[in-house]
Amino acid sequence: MSDYEQLAEDYARVEQAIIFLERNARRQPSLGEIAAAAGLSEFHFQRLFGRWVGISPKRFLQFLTKEHARRLLEQSRNVLDAAYEAGLSGPGRLHDLFVACEAVTPGDVQARGEGLAVHYGLHPSPFGRCLLAVTDRGICGLHFVRDDEQEAVNWLRLRWPRARLRQEPQRTGPYLSAVFPLAAAPVPVPLHLYVRGTNFQIQVWQALLRIPLGGAVSYEGLARAVGLPQGARAVGNAVGDNPIPFLIPCHRVIRKLGEFGNYGEGPARKKAILGWEAALLHRDELEEQ
How confident is the model at residue 79 (pLDDT cuts 50, 70, 90)? Predict the structure, then answer.
């Protein structure tokens, strides 16, 4: 079993635990109860987290509280302003200078992928199985599988209705270690994203790329960053239409009161990703001490 297959298998248990927590948050269940909800003893629950994220379940669960989310917003309040001041406001290399985002031309938007070859594969990831799609110009789609892998393929077909879809996991597999790095350090070779959307959507997605690992912004803060201070709802819609979640980190947008909010890939997965990212940073800090 590969590292990613093990992580994907572990994630299913983690998601069960998060869903149990969401349903029973008011009474603050014990760690033993949470482990039992995931179908494990407390001992095996500890081991699972050691494999999946490298920290204890107790520490990880602290990252899923409203209080932590509020602190994250407070610490990250000016993160987009700082990114612009650092010279990352252009259309080139963003997101710790390792993701480059290229918009589909207006003519290509109208063509809806006609003449384009889209290669895709279904792969394990730290957040369950996912569909990863690429073209010769870059990654064009990422979608986490929930119950049905065919649903993920249908999602891709709706995004690129006239493209030639080719299932070629041997072509998409090499991207896994760059998309889902198992350390906090950025990948040294830039990843190229090839996205199809309106000018406004692309503006929002590029702003999302400026939110660093371990950071978060509110919908209102993101709206201000794209020059539409009263447009939190419109920004929210653009966030929801993100075609490459995780890499374009829409999970880092949370509600201003510290609520994690909705997520197209599932609310439990959003919490898992935010907790996983926080743990990566925490583990990195421990290694430096």
Answer: low
